[in-house]
Structures are given as C-alpha cells and as structure tokens.
Amino acid sequence: ATVTANSSEVAGLLMSGTINQDELRFRGRPSKLGEISSLAWSPDGRHFLTAGLGSYVRLWSMPDGNLQGLIPIQTASKLYYSADGLFIFVFSRSPESQDVHELRIYQRKNLSLLRTVSKLQAAHAVSADGKNFAVMAAGDDQIHLYNREDEKPRLSWKIGYAVKQLAFSADGQTLFSQALTGMLITYWQVADGKMLGITCPIAGKYDQFFPSPDGKRIAATGADQQITHQAIHGDSPAAMLRGHEDTIRALAFSPDGKLLASGGNDHTCRLWSVTADPAREAARSEFDPSENALPDWISLPKDFSPVWARSNGGYWIGDGKSHGKLFFQPSSKTAAREEQKAPPETYLRLISSADSNVIATFSWPRILRVLHPKDGKWSDSLRLSQGIVGPIIFSPDNQWIASGGDDNVVSIHHVKTGALIATLRGHQGQINSLAFSKDGRTLASSAADQTLRLWHTPTWRELGILHQGEAIYGLTFSKDGSVLRGITESGQTRDFGGK
C-alpha cells in the first residue's frame, strides 16, 4: 500500500524515511467510518470489527475489506470476539449519561442481542476466550467478575483506588487493574481475587496498554500520536510506531501476534508488522547479553510473580514483597541458587550490577535501597529524581548509580554512602536511557529532547552532543568502548563510533 501525505507532519516523516515500511494502511470511506474508537479481529482472522464515534459498529470481511454487517450502536468504545468466534462483546456509553456505560453481548451468526449489563464504570475487561468479563459498577469500588452465561457476578473484591483500565492475561488466569493516574498496575488471581503483585508501566505513564497474545509484549498508546511496542520485561521500548496524524484511540493484535492494528481521530486504520527482526536481535546480543524473559529452566514457586534483573553471572529474582523471597540464580543450570534477605518494603524493580556483586530495589514513588550480598545488609533508603523515575544503572566498578527521569536531569549517587555526588543538566526532556562505557570513564544519556549526550565521569562535565534529531533508546557500549549502540523510535539500530 502507498502512504499518502495529507499533512506536513506525514510529509516530513516520508522525507526522513521514518514511517514504518511494514505498515499497511487503508481509508475505507473515512466520512462514514467516523473517528475510530475500537477494533477487533475474529479468531480465524477472516473478519474485522470497527467502531466509530457517531457511527455504527461495522463488520468487515478480510482481506478484501468488504462490509458484512452493522450493529446500531453509535457510542461504542471497545469491541471483543469470543475465542470460538460465536459471540461479540460491545462496550459503550449509556444513552442516558456520558459517565455510565453498558456491556452488550451479541451472537456473531446473526448479530442478535443476547444480554446487557448496565450502569457500569468505564473500566472493564473481557477474557481472551470470551467466557469471563470483569466490570465495576457505577459509584462502586469493587471489581465484579462474571461468567458469560451468568446474570450475577461469581466473584467480587474491593480494589482500593480509582481504576482507569482492566485487562486479562492471555490465559485468562490473571486480571490487571491500572490506577487512574496511569502510574500503578495491580495484578490479581482470577480464581479467588487474590492480589499477586504491583508493578509500574516500564516507560513511565501510559494511556492504555494491551498484552500481546503470547503474553510477552505490550502495545500502548500515549502522547504525540505514537504507539509503544515493547517486551513486558524490557527496560526500554523496542519500537515506537509513528504515522498517525491525530490521537490514537484503539489497538488490537491479530490472533497470531504478528500484526498490530491501530485507529483513531485521523479517520484511518493502520496495520503494523510487529514481528521481531532476527538480524537486529542478533546484532544487539553482541553488545548486551540481556534478554527479555527468564529462561524456562529456572523453576519458580507456584503463584510466584517475579521481579528480576540479569547480570553477566546470572539472575536476581524476587517476588516484590516486603520481607519476601529474593535469590540469585547463577547462569549455570546445575548451580545452586543463593537466598538473600529481601528489603523491608515492597518494590517494583530490581537493578543488578554487571558482576552481580551489588543489587538495588526501586520502590514507589522514588525510593532506592542497595544491597551488597556479601554483607547481607540493605542500605538506608535514598530518593532519586523529583519526578517519574526512568533508567537506573550501576557503574562498572559499582561505585556509582546513575538514574534519570522526567525532571530532565541525570543524577549520580555514591553506592556505599547514598550521597548525591553529581546532577547532570542539559537535556530538555525526559531521560530515556543511560549507559556507562566498559572502563567507566564515559556516561551516555539519551532523552525525549532527541539528543544523545556524553559525560566525562572523572569530572562529570558534558563532553558534547553525539547525536540529535531522533529519540534513542536501549543504549549500550561495545566491549572495547569504541561503539555506542541504540535503538530508534522506529526500531532501527544506530551505531555511533568513538567515545
């Protein structure tokens, strides 16, 4: 398909070559589609649902894009298929109020209405198999879990905060709830409503998030008409998909997870190829051996939701709980794991030094504690940046810990004393990534201001701007320190020579 520039923004993207070449784009009667609010694939990939604000829900055949049927709802915000393809779920605003919603279930065969659940909050979720759904009643602080056939909820539990989004895991065994602030995600066991843990979105603050079918990746909407696509356990975005000309309102993975569909206020629906590039992944591994998932041979207790970090020698794994479980698993399959004392508060992230000799935990909102495993004692807590905390890394000699966030500065703390020894200013946007050279004499930082800067660690003076004009993520130095590698918003690898 040919991408046509209908705005100066897209024209600029075309000229710079930053539009994803795997994108397939169609504008099916834009005046009738309306502002697209939701998309859904049928399980066999042969049909596609669209919902537009002020327009009916439409059923299309794929890949020819022919219209097959209509559901007369003009306020639909979310669409779902059951796994067997026999049922369609339509979540929409109630005709009586903008703040009250309802969930309707239709038969796919003839689009006839089966049942309606009314007077709901906006937060809701439908399991991948379509057999369960979770909702919150208007004015209530409880999650209600329904079986599709039941008139009443089979399970309800209090959540303790205002909810922005609910989502099931791919296997339907876990339910995620995101706080209204976009800063906090709690995950719950569907069987009994037990809280399994708390985490934060990897890249900071999300608008909406969507787990991939394999449960290993997340696609998320945010500001600036772009989509974040990343591994769930990654520390930085794998790709930023750009091209939409207005707010993005809907995302949907294809059943095999190879395509991502997006739609929004620019009256377009776009399809993106989101399969991994083996050559790129192989090239990245030459620089940094870190992976985005724990190996299958590491056994974990039942109902154990890991928080983990990889080092050159193995894996630090914890459960994120106060005085909970924390251990080091060496890379060798036959080596015994080493138990450690967990910190006194719950934590969201683990940060390991390259040699595994120092570890830190990050707790909400900006608390860091450091542990030297040989001593077995946790340091006093220290506060990091003044805003949302992004990347946190140790220096190669374990003397310093560098961190960055949305206060636009890089902070350097002494590992043993916790003292703030340097504040590196110059960036005009949120810090995206940090990396020390292997000899520890150079620190690289990239930020949302689309600059990549180098700092001289003996003096903490800025060496200069190495690159500008595009945001860079996933910074890492080659082993000899001669090349700095990063990943662009479009997922391309960039190599920068010299330190």
Summarize the structure.
By secondary structure, the chain is mainly β. β15 and β16 form a beta hairpin.
- If strands are numbered along the chain, what order do they take across the biggest sheet? 6-7-8-9-10-11-12
- The percentage helix is under 10%
Task: Outline the biggest β-sheet.
Answer: 7 strands, antiparallel
Could you report the average pLDDT, rounded to the nearest whole number?
A: 80
| CA gyration radius, whole angstroms | 24 Å
Low confidence ranges:
1-5, 19-31, 277-292
Q: Report the total helices.
A: 3
Strand content: over 45%
Structural class: mainly beta
Number of strands: 43
End-to-end separation in angstroms reads 41 Å
Q: Rough shape?
A: globular
Show the helix and strand layout.
Blueprint: H1 8-16, E1 24-26, H2 30-33, E2 35-41, E3 47-53, E4 55-61, E5 67-71, E6 76-81, E7 87-93, E8 101-107, E9 113-126, E10 132-137, E11 142-147, E12 155-158, E13 163-168, E14 174-179, E15 185-189, E16 195-199, E17 208-211, E18 217-221, E19 226-231, E20 239-242, E21 248-253, E22 259-264, E23 269-273, H3 278-287, E24 307-310, E25 314-318, E26 325-330, E27 338-341, E28 349-352, E29 359-363, E30 367-372, E31 377-378, E32 382-383, E33 389-394, E34 400-405, E35 410-414, E36 420-424, E37 431-436, E38 442-447, E39 451-456, E40 461-468, E41 472-477, E42 483-488, E43 493-497
Antiparallel strand pairs: 1-23, 2-3, 3-4, 4-5, 6-7, 7-8, 8-9, 9-10, 10-11, 11-12, 13-14, 14-15, 15-16, 17-18, 18-19, 19-20, 21-22, 22-23, 24-25, 25-26, 26-27, 28-29, 29-30, 30-31, 30-32, 33-34, 34-35, 35-36, 37-38, 38-39, 39-40, 41-42, 42-43
